[in-house]
Design a protein that fits this description.
The complex is a heterodimer of chains A (123) and B (278). Helices cover 62% and strands 0% of the residues of chain A. Chain A is an all-alpha fold. In chain A, helix 1 packs parallel to helix 3. Chain A is rod-shaped and about 85 Å long. Chain B has 2 domains: 159 residues; 81 residues, no CATH class. In chain B, helix 1 packs parallel to helix 3. The chains are: A mainly alpha (123), B alpha+beta (278). The interface between A and B is medium-sized, with 18 and 21 residues.
Chain lengths: 123, 278
């Protein structure tokens, strides 16, 4: 079974030559073979062109990306306003689009008294 | 050509009239039906499924298909009947009335149309189609819970399924039954139908199972041009009437015609048991 040191040596061997010395130097205080292996894998991934970030790096990258892509809020023109599906005109248009008597009865029954009155007034 | 109404005022009038129409035709639930707003012409044939009583359940012996029932048969019913009622409104009537008088006129016409259709369908319930009365002829005052039990027994004797059975009675017989203490204190479901046609045979009521009579209903597409024309239907039952509005400019009148295209045919003779008066 491979030890952490063996795995670290395997990964380090794959790193670019300029990155290898810092992973072959003696362990410093607060550093372990485990944390060094994680860092070595991350460096290897970056060297291979993969995005491999720490959570902090990821959050900063997202914020930067969002800042680049975002646009200032602008008032939408009236023509792009969302359609009010309960407006008399909208209800009347839906009535006009119904071609099945069953659906027509079902739709009429689904309307409130106020909606029916509004449609009748609109027409 | 779409068969829906397009004018919302007409839709409102028609939808209000649909309620009394379906209510008046409630007894149709006692029969096998095929109702739809699909367009059809007079004398077209509609296939009405008749579900007969199933045979007994089988003990499982390795195969679910053993003793499979084939109890759904189909009866072709020709749409031979076409009834209509027309109401009209003058400009003066419209102006002198505070409420929408057309609503009331059309609702009343549709209710009458439904009653006439029902009476016509009941005309099929004759001795020639369904045999002798289920119990001896009796007057309304003699119709009590014991007679009801006798009818029940007769229905069971011909293996009429208990589920979906209906009892349709003339108003006087139903009233007397309600006056019976046993019935009044119990929960015996009945459908009252005042005005059952005697059919020349003194018919006053009948017990029925859907397998006894097949009824079909469709929408008759008008051939002429109308100001407004379309089918008005109840989505649950398919009960449908046609609605036509047109104007007569010479007399300044608005006409509304409501119509019904339908047909009916005897199915299983044991599906209906007649009750007659002396």
């Amino acid at each position: 079974m491979k030890t952490l040191e063996d795995r670290l040596a395997t990964v380090v061997a794959l790193l670019p030559a300029q990155e290898q010395p810092r992973f072959t130097a003696p362990l410093t205080v607060g550093e372990s073979a485990d944390s060094r292996l994680v860092d070595a894998v991350r460096v290897l991934a970056k060297a291979e062109g993969l995005a491999c970030m720490t959570p902090g790096e990821f959050a900063r990258a997202v914020a930067q990306h969002a800042a680049q892509r975002s646009m200032p809020a602008a008032d939408a023109p009236d023509t792009d306003a969302p359609v009010d599906e309960d407006s008399p005109d909208s209800l009347a248009a839906r009535f006009a689009s119904i071609t099945d008597p069953r659906a027509q009865t079902a739709f009429w029954r689904s309307l409130t008294t106020e909606q029916r009155a509004a449609i009748l007034k609109a027409q | 050509m779409p068969n829906t109404l397009t004018n919302v005022q007409d839709i409102k009038v028609a939808q209000r009239a649909l309620q009394p129409f379906t209510a008046a035709l409630t007894p149709m639930r006692a029969f096998s039906t095929n109702f739809s707003p699909d367009p059809a012409n007079k004398l077209d044939t509609v296939r009405v499924p008749i579900v007969s009583p199933p045979s007994q359940s089988s003990d499982f012996a390795g195969n679910y298909t053993a003793n499979a029932d084939s109890t759904v048969s189909v009866i072709p019913v020709q749409l031979t009947r076409h009834k209509f009622k027309t109401v009209h409104l003058t400009a003066r009537e419209a102006s002198e009335t505070g409420f929408n008088v057309l609503d009331t006129l059309v609702s009343a016409a549709v209710k009458q149309l439904a009653q006439d259709v029902l009476q016509d369908i009941f005309s099929e319930i004759t001795a020639a189609n369904y045999g002798a009365p289920v119990i001896a002829a009796l007057a309304p005052a003699a119709f009590d819970y014991k007679k009801l039990l006798a009818i029940r027994e007769a229905c069971s004797a011909v293996k009429m399924p208990v589920t979906d059975r209906a009892l349709i009675l003339d108003g006087a017989y139903y009233t007397n039954l309600l006056g019976d203490d046993v019935v009044a204190k119990g929960f015996v479901p009945q459908v009252v139908q005042p005005g059952i046609p005697e059919n020349g045979e003194k018919l006053v009521g009948f017990a029925a199972h859907p397998s006894g009579l097949a009824v079909a209903m469709r929408y008759l597409v008008p051939a002429a041009e109308y100001d407004e024309a379309g089918a008005v239907t109840d989505p649950e039952t398919g009960l449908t009437f046609g609605y036509l509005r047109y104007t007569e400019t010479q007399s300044n009148r608005v006409f509304v015609t409501v119509e019904c295209l339908y047909g009916f045919k005897t199915a299983l003779p044991d599906g209906i048991k007649r009750i007659v008066k002396p």
